[in-house]
Amino acid sequence: MADLFEEYRLGPGWDEMFAELGVPRASYEALHATLQPLSSAELGVRAEVLARAFLDQGITFALKGVERPFPLDIVPRIIAAAEWRGVEVGVAQRIRALEAFLADVYGAGQVLADGVVPRRIIATSAHYLRAAAGITPPNGVRVHVAGVDLIRDEQGTFRVLEDNVRIPSGVSYVMENRRAMAQVLPEVFAATRILPVESYPAMLLTALRAAAPAGISDPAVVVLSPGVYNSAYFEHAMIAREMGVELVEGRDLVCVGNAVAMRTTAGEQRVDVIYRRIDDDFLDPVHFRADSVIGVAGLLNAARAGRVTIANAVGNGVADDKLLYTYVPELIRYYLNEEPLLPNVDTYRLDEPGVLEHVLDRLDELVLKPVDGAGGAGIVIGSQAMRHELDAVREKIVANPRGWIAQREVKLSMVPTLIGDRLRGRHVDLRPFAVNDGEKIWVLPGGLTRVALPEGELVVNSSQGGGSKDTWVLASPTSPVGEPVPIPAVGPVPSAPAGPPDPGPGQAPAEEQQQQQQ
Question: Which of 9, 193, 208, 475 has the fewest CB atoms within 10 Å, i.e. the most exposed one?
């Protein structure tokens, strides 16, 4: 084996490249054949070209207030066509269920009346916004863009880690990663059929135009950004440019008589669809934070009047609540009358009787997460935490059980990653991006693979210092990989069971019980 791999070791979980040490999986054979003869110096030169390209183009991410190039590792993550088809249909199924749930919870509330989701879960969610109740989007779509975070468990099964249906970010890095990798590993691209990612802006624009208010034949679409100081501003600008639409800030828009217009040098121009990258709290100072200077006063009233579409819809955050996440398998059964195609990570609901005490006795074995956390903030990995950290999180959990969930610690899958001058295994997750136009759900082939760069680290988020990898989905001549998934009609199934019981002391999490039965 070449020097690059001489110190490579398989980890305790699933290795994406190797079935066993030195034996690459079929999907990685071409890449392995390219890397194996290279010296560390040769690979280092290519890695330097990658880093320089990102720096020269200003592809950055703000980490603790400091702008820096977004780390892109030179070794891609590869997913076989058959595996990806399972991800596509599983992600689409999940979005269909969440769309039905959001329409229900901001409408008739049948899911609450039937007891599938307890009312207290919604009443105590920080992201359930009463101001959004009763607003019906023109084409019924609330989740125009979704980012569903996946991991592989120790057996190589994809599991859902969390849902992101508010303002999922990171797709710009997917596109830029691909452009850069095509330059530094051209021989692998020539030998491998990889599904492209450059159609994302066109698919997104199609979905946004389809969401325009009724009677608008040529809708005007804009991207609403908080401004240049936002950590994802590079993405806002790139998406607007690639879609060929205006990038605006709140001060560029005005709402009068429930109609939204954009200020231009030629006068005010009508706006029909706003792809917003601003949090709900700051979007409309009339209904939310009155001190917001980056939103648009009256915007929610315009949406309620059907004069403008906000994408993603206001109030979607209730579906991102990590406690609500534990009910998504039940929502799939309730609304779709289907079994979940992508299982959750085994999770404990700490506000259920008997569960809290059971979890408090096992803090050093579990992963503790705040239900409204984002970007990896607040997560405590019990096996890696110091005693004072466990004591601190114990106090927080006891004071607010509703504010936390506990999950089994999954040994995330690993991909060879260039660390110094050698390839070493590092943990990864995957964020596929999905676009919903009301008739079909299209999942971008590949998505964003995030990699934890420190050895043994399990938190892969960019905001916690992680990097990324280009994600290659292999094409298949026989399966419809990369094709949109149609959306059949959905509705509550009154006779659907509420799902397996929550875990109590000594019991496995509900989702684990389900998996054992399948």
Answer: 9
pLDDT for position 3: 65
Q: CB of 118 within 8 A of CB of 326?
A: no
Q: Which amino acid is at 172?
A: S
| Dihedral angle, C-alpha 289, 291, 295, 297, nearest 10 ° | 80
CA within 13 Å, CB half, 171:
29
pLDDT at 60: 62
* % pLDDT > 90, the chain: 70
Could you give the C-alpha distances from 217 to 207, 213, 268, 476, in angstroms and in order? 14, 9, 19, 37
Collect contacts of 49-54 with beta carbons under 8 A, ≥24 apart. 49/183, 49/184, 50/74, 50/180, 50/181, 50/184, 53/180, 53/183, 54/176, 54/180
CA–CA gap between residue 233 and residue 245 (Å, rounded): 15
pTM for this model (two decimals): 0.90
Question: Please, what CATH class does the domain formed by 347-408 belong to?
Answer: alpha beta
Q: DSSP character for 60? A: E
CB within 8 Å of 466: residues ≥ 6 apart: 71, 450, 451, 452, 453, 457, 459, 460
Segment (H or E) for 455: none
Residue 382 has what DSSP assignment?
Answer: G
Closest CA to 116 of 494, 400, 509: 494
Q: How many helices (H) and strands (E) does the chain have?
A: 16, 25
* Strand, helix or coil for residue 480: coil
Q: What is the pLDDT of residues 108-145, one digit of tens each?
A: 999 999 999 999 999 999 999 999 999 999 999 999 99
Q: Scan for tokens 């939103």, then name that residue.
A: 295
* DSSP E strands, 197-323: 221-224, 246-248, 253-256, 259-264, 267-270, 273-276, 309-311
Tokens read off for 507: 């019991």
pLDDT at 461 over 90: no
Q: And the tokens for 372? A: 């409204």
Dihedral sign of CA atoms 319, 308, 276, 439 in order: positive
pLDDT for residue 78: 97
Find the distance separating the first CA and the last CA of the chain, reported in whole Å. Answer: 41
**Residues facing residue 427 across a β-bridge:** 414
